[in-house]
Amino acid sequence: MRKLSFLLLPMLLSGCTVAVAYGDVPHNRLVENPRCNPSQNDNAAIAGKDHFIVTSRLPDCRDDTIILTNHRTDRVRYARFAPPQKIKPLKRDAQMVVPLAFQPEDAWWDSLRDAANLRKGRVLLYVHGYRETLQTTARDAVQIGAMSNFDGPIIHYSWPSQGNLFSYAVDETNMYWDERNFRNFLTKLARTEWVKEVVIVSHSLGARLVIPAVEYVDRTSTNADSSNISNIILASPDMDREDFERDIAEEILAARRVNNDRRVTVYASLSDRALALSRAVHGYPRLGSPYCFSPFEARELKAKGLPQRCFATKTKYQTELAKTGFTIIDTTDVSGGGTGHSDYLRSFAVCKDFAAVVNGARTTEDRVATKDAHVFTLRPPVKPKKEDIAAMCKSLPD
């Protein structure tokens, strides 16, 4: 993987990317079937589809199976989905499909209300990152719900990532294009009376959608203390570390919000090769990677016999330790392998901690304190087997 990184780096730095192809069919034809824009709720179509999805991807409703493409759409759509399923057409390799059915927006919100009211008004919102398709992100959303045993409806926000290794610039562009769509949705969700608590989980590039949107909701909220967005979890966030420290945390982690139970948990790893490449592209460290930008700071840590890892600092807007609003979990030593970019779904130790945090835990028995009061490592488990990891992380078949 290290050799691959060196090969990919010049292409990323030079702006090499895969162009977005319009396709062979006019986009308006993809959505002309009423299934794409239902005027009435179809109970038969949504039966068995217990997960909620909001998407700015362009759908293709020409066939019985609705597909979400990698293109932008003219409007945000609301749908329900079931866990991905494998199908094996004749003379073709097995494919993963996501059973999906759109709902009228009002009917979707009514369905979400009914589901949330059964679970004390708690909802979980998942926002994916770079290089994803509906198949991969729907699988992750289902896994997050199963792993945490979350006691409320799961909402998956799907923006038009290209699902392609060489389309980082396109994904970044689409993410910024989608800021208003996501901000409007989050604002309505947070201000809906029957939504008592919003737990947000974002991965990678998704943090750059989530954090500005939360900041907007906070800034425009009529509630002087806080919105009901209380638990924000950033897994491997691909955003500028200094930007978060200087500007973003000022509003999101303001003392009055922290005192009202607002907290942000970051899962970061120096083994994260994807964020190492992102740092090379953007020039500065990412929030999800404890890379020491200053060589002098790195040398000082080494001289003290400490790991050469540098993290986002706590801000002046923090309150007493019992109500700390900012926690970083350093997963470097318990990485789940691969690129180290999805430890929250791949590592036994991280999955266990992540599941607890989703359900409101502020600390866990496996956390180990570091020199920084807001930074913790995780105690490595005793050589877990693949089946143990799969059971803890509730991994779904590829």
Summarize the entry for a quick read.
With 398 residues, this protein is α/β, with parallel strands linked by helices. The protein has helices at residues 2-13, 27-30, 43-46, 105-117, 134-148, 168-177, 179-191, 207-220, 241-252, 255-258, 273-282, 295-303, 343-346, 348-358, 386-393, and strands at 51-60, 67-81, 85-87, 95-97, 100-103, 122-127, 154-158, 197-203, 229-235, 263-268, 326-330, 367-369, 375-378. The protein has one domain (2-393).
What is the terminal-to-terminal distance? 21 Å
- Summarize the amount of helix as a percent range: 25-40%
CA-atom Rg in angstroms: 21 Å
What general outline do the C-alpha atoms trace?
Answer: globular
Describe the structure.
By secondary structure, the chain is of the alpha/beta class. The protein has one domain (2-393). Helix content is 36%, strand content 20%. It has 15 helices and 13 strands. The protein has helices spanning 2-13, 27-30, 43-46, 105-117, 134-148, 168-177, 179-191, 207-220, 241-252, 255-258, 273-282, 295-303, 343-346, 348-358, 386-393; strands at 51-60, 67-81, 85-87, 95-97, 100-103, 122-127, 154-158, 197-203, 229-235, 263-268, 326-330, 367-369, 375-378. The strands form 2 sheets. An 11-stranded mixed sheet has the order 5-2-1-7-6-8-9-10-11-13-12, sandwiched between helices. It has a two-stranded antiparallel ribbon with strand order 3-4. Helix 8 (207-220) links the parallel strand 8 and strand 9 (229-235). Helix 1 runs parallel beside helix 11 and helix 7 (179-191) packs across helix 8. The longest helix has 15 residues, at 134-148. This is Alpha/beta hydrolase. GO terms for molecular function: hydrolase activity. Keywords: Hydrolase, Signal. Residues 1-21 form the signal peptide. InterPro entries: AB_hydrolase_fold (IPR029058), DUF900_hydrolase (IPR010297).
